[in-house]
Design goal:
Its main location: nucleus. InterPro entries: Nucleotide-bd_a/b_plait_sf (IPR012677), RBD_domain_sf (IPR035979), RRM_dom (IPR000504), RRM_MRD1_RNA_proc_ribogen (IPR051945). This is RRM domain-containing protein. It is found in: Nucleus. Keywords: Nucleus, Repeat, RNA-binding. The protein is α+β, with helices and mostly antiparallel strands. The chain has one domain (about 15-230): RRM (RNA recognition motif) domain (Alpha-Beta Plaits), CATH 3.30.70.330. Helix content is about 40%, strand content about 20%. The protein contains 8 helices and 4 strands. The chain has helices at about 15-25, 45, 60-75, 100-110, 150-160, 180-195, 200-215, 225-230, and strands spanning about 80-90, 115-130, 135-145, 170-180. The protein has a 4-stranded antiparallel beta sheet. It starts with 15 loop residues before the first helix and ends in a 6-residue tail after the last helix.
């Protein structure tokens, strides 16, 4: 995108000594990384741009769908109550015959570790049923891992992988966008079901504890790797 900052620059010095001195100075100083309480940087990991090596062989239908999903994410994140979960993935383009158990196994295999999956649920359309009377799949699912590293490994392995489903309909994997107000409402319902009477402050603290593990994320990433994998960076 013209006019957007890519996140790096080139500087030429008159002498080799001056360049070495500048390099030592920058390497010995820590830079203040802007705080990102909503994990907006994670959105970039699921993006694949047309024209990049990662998009090789992608169908036009998948490319158009990715563009639509990116716009939906952008709109959602305009709401300051929305944040990006570093452990929960949303997976699109599922075959209609895919089951929760099969998808869970695919995701577990993708991590290459004994990563713990705490949720794997395919969304169903109750208004449409198959020949057996079961609700039909909506073609997407949510998969939550206990740790961010396993979620990231799963995303990197499955996203746009032509051998997972079909070459024409590849997995579209992104970190899930969550609503803090919905989490707060869920916490209140859980407290009420247990007979707990919480004040507003107590409820906020309970939600804060639940979200703290979700929102914490390490921001020191290798920007060059991200740039090479995703293409030109964008602002969120």
């Amino acid at each position: 995108m013209p006019g957007r900052i890519a996140g790096f620059a080139f500087v030429q010095f008159k002498t080799r000594g001056a360049a070495e001195k500048a390099r030592e100075h920058f390497n010995s100083n820590k830079f203040q990384v802007p705080e990102d309480k909503r994990n907006l940087r994670l959105v970039r990991f699921g993006l694949i741009r047309e024209g990049t090596s990662a998009a090789k062989g992608m169908s036009s239908e998948d490319a158009a769908k990715r563009q639509r999903l990116a716009e939906v994410s952008r709109k959602k994140l305009e709401n300051l109550h929305m944040f990006v979960s570093p452990t929960r993935l949303m997976i699109h383009n599922l075959p209609l015959t895919m089951t929760d158990e099969k998808l869970k196994q695919i995701c577990r295999n993708a991590t290459g570790t004994a990563g713990m999956i705490t949720e794997c649920r395919i969304w169903k359309d109750t208004s449409k049923v198959d020949s057996k009377g079961n609700p039909r799949s909506k073609g997407f699912a949510f998969v939550n891992f206990a740790e961010h590293k396993d979620a990231l490994a799963c995303l990197q392995k499955l996203n746009n992988n032509p051998s997972t489903f079909t070459n024409e309909r590849r997995p579209i994997v992104e970190f899930s966008i969550e609503n803090l107000l919905a989490i707060r409402a869920k916490a209140r319902r859980a407290a009420n079901s247990k007979g707990e009477k919480l004040t507003g402050r107590e409820l906020s603290e309970k939600v804060r504890q639940q979200v703290s593990d979700i929102v914490v994320y390490t921001y020191q990433v290798f920007r060059l790797e991200i740039f090479e994998y995703l293409g030109q960076t964008i602002d969120w």
